[in-house]
Specification:
By secondary structure, the chain is mainly beta. The protein is about 5% helix and about 45% strand.
Length: about 80
C-alpha cells in the first residue's frame, strides 16, 4: 500500500465510530516505517484545530477504513 492511498481515508475508533480522516502521515526515512498518522476529526467543523496525532502502533487494521485499537473520546 502506498502512503498516498492513506490520505483522505476514513478512520474508525475501537467502537467503530467514524472519527475523521487521515490528512498526514509521518514516517521514518531510516527504516521506511510509518510512525504517526494525523487525523482531522469531524467533531466540530468550526474548530480550526481539530487534528490529532495517533501512533501507528494504535492502528489495528487498514482496509476500506483505518481501524484504530483506541477510543477517541468525544468532547
Amino acid at each position: 500500500m502506498k502512503i498516498k492511498s492513506l490520505l483522505g481515508m476514513k478512520v474508525l475508533d475501537t467502537n467503530a465510530n467514524e472519527v475523521g480522516k487521515i490528512n498526514d502521515v509521518e514516517f521514518d526515512i531510516e527504516n521506511g516505517k510509518i510512525d504517526d498518522l494525523t487525523i482531522s476529526l469531524k467533531k466540530n467543523l468550526l474548530d480550526k484545530n481539530n487534528d490529532i496525532i495517533v501512533k501507528y502502533d494504535n492502528v489495528k487494521n487498514i482496509g476500506d477504513y483505518v481501524l484504530l485499537d483506541i477510543d477517541i473520546a468525544e468532547e
